[in-house]
Records
---
Amino acid sequence: MAGGGHALEIFKHQRDKADVLSCLAYNS
């Protein structure tokens, strides 16, 4: 289960990064 939790953290980080990029694209 520890590996699954790590994958979830990676997924969350990727999603957060995508949110930031979409915000920058929207504001530009």
---
Amino acid sequence: MLLSHVLNSKQEEMEFLASLILSLSFSSLLLSPPAQATAPSGTIKRTTKQQILASIPPGTQENPVPFITSPSGKYAAYLLRRETAPGAGGFGSDFCYIQVQDTSTEQSMWESECAPVSTANTCALVFDDNGLEVFDGSNSAWATDDAESADENFLETLELVDEGDMWLRDKKGELAWKASEEPRANQGCGLPGSPGLAPARPPFAAPIGGDDNLPFGQQQLPQPSTLSTQQAKPMAGVSQTFGFDSNPLADSTPYDSGCSRGVQYWLGTGGGVLLAHLVSGLVF
């Protein structure tokens, strides 16, 4: 009897412990927050007003940062930062931009515009009310300005589909923007001649000569010969300076040259005036 009583007590304890564990497990399920629906592969859902997708600090131009991959993994989108190549012109800025790549070939499928950023600032890719926006520090450098919902609903999801296209949808799932509507690829941001860079030198800065054309499509005109028949004559002294009539640049008028003709001129003029005064005195 005593043995059976002990066995029954242990069995009751085991049942009590089992029921206690079950009740605790059930209560923990009730107290736990509801599970959030996870975004499907290839999709980013915006949960804040300005959601940072990727950022690159200055001095790390050669490290692309992936921020989304297509469902099959065939395509990936990166934030890239490139410095201006030496001799490429411009103002020496860095360039931050988005690039969608084929992951197997690393071929560029789509790119955002080459956005110049300061070499001292972090560039960041943000998902906000403008859609995708590249920031130079706290200043906007590029954005999908035409990404907007027909009903002015806020933009909620970013998708990278297996065709290599990026889409933005509003909170109702309506398509608001497609990257394929702005086709760009292989811009070579930061390289000579790339978008956002002034040419290293103006087209008319090259030396003119030979068969080169003049600025703005003008043609080089034949130059007249600078030799003249006078060059066949013996040249005067090197120290002399010649005017338009091949005479030395000296005042040849009789007023200060000291020539005798000037003296004769003054004598003749003075005599005539004196004679006129004498005649007038005799008459009157």
---
Amino acid sequence: MTKVGRDVTWTYLRHVRDRFKTAVLLMTSSPKEAEALADFLAVLEGGKIRCTGGLPDVHEKLGIGYEVRVRKGPNWNPSEVENLMSTTGFEQSAHVIYRIGKREPQEMSVLKEGLEAYERDGTVSDILVNLRTLHDQRARCTSSDETDSSMPAHSIATSSTKRPMAFMQLCAVLKKKNVTQNQSAAVVASNHPLLDSTLYARGIITHHMFFAWLLSIELALLASIPAVHVALERESRFYRLQMSSGLRPVPYWVGNFLCDGAYGFLYAGVLTFVSAVADGSGHLGGAPAAALFVLLWVHALSMLLPLYTVATLFSPLWTFVTVAIGGSFTGCFGLWAAHAKRTWAFEEGKTSEDPAMWALRFVPFFSAPWGVANLRLAGALRKECSIHSTRNESCDAVDQRCCACKSQPLMCRFCKLVTAQTEPKQRTRRQNKRR
């Protein structure tokens, strides 16, 4: 791979790991790639795990870093040199080897000055500094003709004490991350990050499509459940009595809005719980449960105003159908388009912000133009209610209300007052009919 292609692949692998909070099992023959990407390494030698651990642990076990080789001078003093190196050396005949790991350039400058001072006073001589990399150590490990005589024996033993446990940990990672048999075979056979991530992306897209279906049903329910409540309230005679008697409807609608908003809060919590159980993971189509709850609740509130308008002017059946289709599934169209774009982005290897989650933030506002278009009908609200509310229906509603509210003297006085005003006109109508 070229340098540009390698950087794009590495960036994409980091995006998959961090964005989806998942493990990426990468088999590579490039030590540079392993050091750049991995936070947990397993070095293989002849099909066996030589050592495992984090990057600093592997460096320490394999002796990665700076190696200082000095010859003992006439005034050899091991304690002074060990204080300078901050580690114990390994003697080999007339030479002593110090493995000091990776150091910053400033620290190496101080170390070099100290060694030159010891060389001048005859403590050491023939100073040789080498930088051992993971690539060099892997070449020594995999070579059948060459053995690393400078590697301490106890360092090799220490690095191999936990091989069975480390291998079981790797198997546990695969099981916990639900890697299927086919995908695992593709990972081992292809050994190509882009192909493997494409297979993984297809599974993610299928999961998100299921979430989109579930979200469409939830949005329809949140818009339709209050519609039934408003339609039934519109059919009640007492509601028409309030409108025809000149009572101001503002407190009535404010109370309904608060009540329906509380119901929407409850419904959003229940639907979020159902979605979390159906999802089976901590993220619902890539979105946290808290974000989904806020989304559903805001959508329920944004649908109440157009819902009240339609429910007041049309029949209950048309209210249910219009609100469910116009309010909810119109908003979900943007979500489906975002998922199609997300699929294309995965196949092209794009690493930008997730467009599906961007659309999720604006799903409630897709219904806003649809609601505003119906607000022009709100001016006919009082007129329409007055046409459907006759005096006879008002009197029937008064009688029923009085019978049901005997424990409320104030309401009964109001009912008697309305009855006294309407009774003379009713007598006149009966006499005209008899004539």
